Automatic annotation (TrEMBL):
GO terms for biological process: porphyrin-containing compound biosynthetic process. This is Uroporphyrinogen-III decarboxylase. GO terms for molecular function: uroporphyrinogen decarboxylase activity. It comes from the Bacteria. Residues 191-388 form the Uroporphyrinogen decarboxylase (URO-D) domain. It comes from Clostridium aceticum.
Amino acid sequence: MTSAVTAQDVKALQQERTQLFKDIYDGKIPKRVPVNSNLTLEFAIQYAGKDLAEVQWDYNLLEEVYEKVCQDFVSDTNPAAMNLRNPLHYKLLGARNFVMGSSGFMQHPEIHGLEAEEYDEFIASPYDCIMEKILPRIYTELDTNPGQRAIAFGKAFKAYYDELFAALGVIGKLTEKYGYSPLGGIELMTEAPFDFVADQLRGFKGITGDLRRCPDKVEAACEVALPLMLKQGTPHHPPSNYGATFIPLHMAPYIRPKDFEKYYWPTFKKLVDGLADKGQPSLLFVEHDWMRYIDYLYELPENTRMWFEYGDPKLVKEKLGKKHIITGFYPIGLLKTGTKQECIDKAKEMIDILAPGGKYIFGFDKGIITADSVNVDNLKAVLEYVAENANY
């Protein structure tokens, strides 16, 4: 009898948590502010006292790691986050763009797959250029004849999907066990076309030089990358108002406003508009400080979800809070340096600023990657405080 009641209680909790996100996404004021803990796999592994590299190479160890964070941290969404950069398929591809360091963290070295004089080839046929020229430079196992390349691709894709489905299975099991909302997460990921050209083709140094040497080529490259990014961000199933495509925004704070206006913004807006036209909302990770571009963000489709790293939360609430859904801003650095009361007071401040009128999900300014980057007791206290006190 007790187990049946417990199961009913868990289901009721899950329904209540799910309704919080439905209300947010439907433009209604929810019962209380939803909590998204923004914990990462790396944090979970370290918190559970496991070896960072070992767990990432052996997904049979995932459930024990994820179970620990589910037991110990309050969250309305499952705190067992997916690993977006699993090392196995990168290793099989001979990746140069994502490699595991000696500490067990996946790192993104500064490399490029396209030379400046090759822009015209990419612009003329972006998909062919990616397949035949760029990928073999980035992934050494693809720098071979077509037959061997197909085998390498096949091995890597199988490894990727084997581990993806293993992780999804564990996460799904724990979502039901602990009554988390299945909403509030990420379905898939794409990039702003300018960020794609910078991150994967030209590198940070290359793209900043290209904006001076051949800006017209950069502009054209972003335009031809747009359909690829739109396709990547579109789910295979019918889109839903409750789903989300994650778009981390990288380069905008590092380029001049006039370059942002001409080369970054047009194709980025077309991407978010295009996804919205299909019925797919976007979750933007607004990296670094976007305050000088805040009026641009207002122009995006209603209820675009925006996760802010830095900036002025009062200004963001004033400018964007009636149209868009806001999360982030809470500085994880304070969880390391502040007292428990200071950390709770900061949570109160964020709620007072961002919660009125709805359209707010509590979250930190970035994912918590290392267990020693925060005082865990402060982290627990903040999550518990928000879940218990941020009622409307």
